[in-house]
Structures are given as structure tokens and as C-alpha cells.
């Protein structure tokens, strides 16, 4: 059963490998993740990630090519 509500706010986060996720805006970020300027509803954040995360290959793998 989901505990999420329509009023929940999220922030888009990114890690050192340039992988994206969403996180509840009112919670401390997990270690290794940095908040981006993108925030809003769950769907708004997921839409933003879809637009900006065009290559899901981790940064370290891209750099080794």
C-alpha cells in the first residue's frame, strides 16, 4: 500500500555517476546524492529526468570508452 499523497513534493537528485532519481523534498538526501534545481510533483520530476537523462550509461563507463 502506497503512503504517497498528491501533495507530496519531490526533488530530482543526481549521483557522482550522473545517474538520476527522485527524492522527497522534505527529507535529508541520501549519501552520495546531490539535489538539482528541478523539483515538483512526482510526475513532473520523472518527466524532467526523461528529458535530461538521455544516456543511462554511468559516467565512469562513458569516460573509459
From TrEMBL:
MbtH-like domain sequence ranges: 5-51
Q: Which GO terms describe its biological process?
A: siderophore biosynthetic process
Q: Which GO terms describe its cellular component?
A: cytosol
Q: Name one Pfam family in it.
A: MbtH
PANTHER family, alphabetized:
ENTEROBACTIN BIOSYNTHESIS PROTEIN YBDZ (PTHR38444)
Q: What is this protein called?
A: MbtH protein
Q: Which organism is it from?
A: Kutzneria buriramensis
